[in-house]
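Chapter review. Work through the record for Transposase-associated domain-containing protein before attempting the end-of-chapter questions.
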Amino acid sequence: MSRRWIQNPNRCADEYLDGIEDFIEFARRHNSGATRIRCLCRMCNNTLWETIENVGFHLVRNGMIETYSIWNLHGEQLDHASSSNVTRMDNVKPIVDPHDQVMDIIQDAFPFASTNINHEGEDDVPTPIDSAEFEQYEKLLKNANQELYPGCESFSVLMAIVELMHGKIKYRMSNLCFDYFLGVFKRMLPTDNCFLKDHKHAQKVLNGLGLGYEKIHACKNNCILFYKEHETLDTCPICNESRFKMTSQNRTTKIPQKAMHYLPLKPRLQRLYMSTHSATEMRWHKEKRVDDDVMRRLVDREAWKEFDQTFPEFAADPQNVNRCLLKAAG
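Structure tokens for Transposase-associated domain-containing protein:
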């Protein structure tokens, strides 16, 4: 079939919309049984997985990668002549195994699990492992291998938590609403299920993947954060407003009037570089970018180029984003 529609800049044109329908039909035919495929829109760039319906929506909204004319990552077979002209990716599978995806997440969060395994003929030096960190790894591994209920082959406990939390965030579901549906799902499942109890329990599990946050109390009138030198105070030193809400004297825990949720930047950047899946993308601006006179990304802007000329030693390091932020944090 002709694929000239990929080059059409008008994404509302009949030619372009018909081309998307042809691709969706092609994807369904070559990925039978798959719930998600690689999204080939310009934003996802064949690195993110979406449902086939969402891929179609992305292609209308963002446009397709113009250089991706042979759909080898979506099941199209390559002949010998054309394979040399296509950017290839190692170990690409047209059908996504959700269990493998969850295990990849765990390996990215705990790289020591793979680096400490000595292969035959290799003299690997074991990486020091913190006992608390290893205990967290074992818990996640147990949840990843534990069936949601006896005989369930589709979902493990960890897989269910990841999928449901992803949906909660994507569709902006409140904690109360989320807890309600968790209770309904738990009653629907067999009585001996291992389904998560509530949102708080799910958060505790995901914290082990490095996806947690710090809760910092704040003044009701936004004067200060009860942090560092103000951490032990019970009232704001500026407006004298109480740090905590008035509650029953029988209550053991105090409830702050206002709190800020802080996502620590340093560990998240470290995980981006520890992960085999995202480390290459973090170096893309240096190693894979097309350097011409066409502005496609922020890296093509004059401000970025001027910064590179001012600090050539810093710019020479493909991991400079990590270096810059770690220095600032340190």
